[in-house]
C-alpha cells in the first residue's frame, strides 16, 4: 500500500495529466470505476510476461481517482490501453462532457470522440488458441511433446507448469447429419 503522502502525490499527477475534475462525476460512479479498476488489475497483470494474477499493489481512491496497479514482476501495466480502467473511464467521461458542450453541433460532437479515442488503438493479441483438426496430427503432437508443454500454431513448444486444457468440440452437426441420413434410409425402406 502506498504511504498517504505518496498516494496524494500520485493523485495530483493523475489530475494534472488528465485535466479531469473527479468531482464532475458522482461519488457513486467514481466508486464503481474504482471497483472496476481494482477488479481489472489482476487480469492486466496476467497479460505481462513474468507476472502472476496477484498484484503487489492494487488500490484506487474514489475521491481523487488516483490508482496504483503494480504486478508481481514490479511492472505497472499501461492501463490506458484497456477498458474498465480509470484512464478509460476518464477518457469516455471527458468525451461525453465534450459532446454536451457542443450544443448539438454534430461536427463538434464527432470530433470529441474521434480526436480523443479511448482504450487500445492497436491491441496486442496475447492469448491465441489453436486447435488440431485431425486425430493423427493430435496423436503425433502428443507423443512428441513432453508433459506440461503447450504447442502453438507454428509447432513451437513452450514449457509451462499449467495442466493441459480440455478442448470442447461441438459435434451437434454430426448428430444432425446422422438423423437426416437415417430419415432418408428409413423413407427408402418404407418405399421398398
Automatic annotation (TrEMBL):
<keyword id="KW-0812">Transmembrane</keyword>
<feature type="domain" description="DUF7707">
    <location>
        <begin position="19"/>
        <end position="123"/>
    </location>
</feature>
<keyword id="KW-1133">Transmembrane helix</keyword>
<dbReference type="Pfam" id="PF24808">
    <property type="entry name" value="DUF7707"/>
</dbReference>
<keyword id="KW-0732">Signal</keyword>
<feature type="transmembrane region" description="Helical">
    <location>
        <begin position="174"/>
        <end position="191"/>
    </location>
</feature>
<keyword id="KW-0472">Membrane</keyword>
<feature type="signal peptide">
    <location>
        <begin position="1"/>
        <end position="18"/>
    </location>
</feature>
<protein>
    <submittedName>
        <fullName>Genomic scaffold, ProqFM164S02</fullName>
    </submittedName>
</protein>
<dbReference type="InterPro" id="IPR056124">
    <property type="entry name" value="DUF7707"/>
</dbReference>
Amino acid at each position: 500500500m502506498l504511504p498517504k503522502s505518496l498516494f496524494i502525490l500520485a493523485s495530483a499527477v493523475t489530475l494534472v495529466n488528465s485535466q479531469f475534475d473527479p468531482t464532475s462525476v458522482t461519488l457513486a460512479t467514481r466508486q464503481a470505476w474504482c471497483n472496476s479498476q481494482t477488479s481489472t488489475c489482476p487480469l492486466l497483470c496476467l497479460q505481462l510476461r513474468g507476472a502472476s494474477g496477484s498484484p503487489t499493489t492494487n488500490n484506487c481512491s474514489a475521491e481523487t481517482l488516483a490508482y496504483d496497479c503494480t504486478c508481481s514482476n514490479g511492472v505497472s501495466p499501461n492501463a490506458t490501453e484497456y477498458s474498465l480502467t480509470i484512464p478509460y473511464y476518464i477518457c469516455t467521461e471527458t468525451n461525453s462532457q465534450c459532446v454536451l458542450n457542443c450544443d448539438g453541433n454534430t461536427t463538434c460532437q464527432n470530433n470529441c470522440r474521434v480526436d480523443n479515442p479511448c482504450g487500445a488503438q492497436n491491441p496486442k493479441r496475447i492469448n491465441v488458441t489453436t486447435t488440431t483438426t485431425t486425430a493423427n496430427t493430435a496423436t503425433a503432437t502428443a507423443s512428441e511433446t513432453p508433459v506440461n508443454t503447450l504447442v502453438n500454431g507454428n509447432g513451437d513448444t513452450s514449457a509451462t507448469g499449467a495442466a493441459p486444457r480440455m478442448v470442447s468440440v461441438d459435434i451437434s452437426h454430426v448428430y444432425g447429419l446422422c438423423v437426416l441420413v437415417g430419415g432418408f434410409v428409413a423413407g427408402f425402406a418404407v418405399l421398398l
